[in-house]
């Protein structure tokens, strides 16, 4: 009997158990379905603003709707005076503690609060990874890149910060595929992605935006710094040993760069300018970096 008690005590969740080190909120209904934001030590802003850590672009959501933060061993949520006040598990609150599984209603969207140690959190992590990353390169996929780029561009424009976009395209990749086959070609792309990843900082966004086309968004980076980055990357790729089908094969990339400027403050205009620079790099002989006009 005494043994039973001991076992129950050891397995009990217990009110004194410390909260997990991190947690996340996942949109489980409405606009932004499937999107997720981690809550770690820094407070997280949720709202319609592009500056929000989790942006829910719906008219029912205020620009700055609510804030979630870690407070010692607890996680707290606070309504920021939203037009449609937040509800936690259907009860309206101004501020309160969140626990694993709570539903937070934000406008017409519902978010679920999940502690990072739960099995469900790992499941959501996996789904999120599948939805946002390209399986071949393990970089962000095109859709996720677009989302992150819009956010970074809005942030940079608002705060008057520099931002650069590099588009990286493999040179003469068709002959590699034709000679060695797609599986060997895929291995080349995977290795190339690893080289790109090793050159970007945590704040930068690296993505595979097409078959043999990659993009890197460099935050707080002007045209000179971006050109230095791109040139270093170009040289690193040219110096990397690729062995499709066991043969040593030099692989090179062409890179086009564009930065934010008056009249070039949207993703589409930035991409068009970087694409035009890339086109010049290809035309002028490949294995080159070219910047916007
Ligand atoms: N292995 C592999 N090949 C791909 C993938 N996506 C696109 N490709 C190949 O990439 C090649 C791109 O060829 P092109 O657009 O003609 O360009 P290129 O031969 O790289 O020449 P330039 O871009 O002009 O330097 C084609 O052979 C595509 O089949 C992929 O996911 N895996």
Automatic annotation (TrEMBL):
<dbReference type="InterPro" id="IPR000160">
    <property type="entry name" value="GGDEF_dom"/>
</dbReference>
<dbReference type="InterPro" id="IPR043128">
    <property type="entry name" value="Rev_trsase/Diguanyl_cyclase"/>
</dbReference>
<dbReference type="Pfam" id="PF00498">
    <property type="entry name" value="FHA"/>
</dbReference>
<dbReference type="InterPro" id="IPR008984">
    <property type="entry name" value="SMAD_FHA_dom_sf"/>
</dbReference>
<dbReference type="InterPro" id="IPR000253">
    <property type="entry name" value="FHA_dom"/>
</dbReference>
<feature type="domain" description="GGDEF">
    <location>
        <begin position="161"/>
        <end position="293"/>
    </location>
</feature>
<dbReference type="InterPro" id="IPR050469">
    <property type="entry name" value="Diguanylate_Cyclase"/>
</dbReference>
<dbReference type="Pfam" id="PF00990">
    <property type="entry name" value="GGDEF"/>
</dbReference>
<dbReference type="InterPro" id="IPR029787">
    <property type="entry name" value="Nucleotide_cyclase"/>
</dbReference>
<protein>
    <recommendedName>
        <fullName>diguanylate cyclase</fullName>
        <ecNumber>2.7.7.65</ecNumber>
    </recommendedName>
</protein>
<feature type="domain" description="FHA">
    <location>
        <begin position="44"/>
        <end position="93"/>
    </location>
</feature>
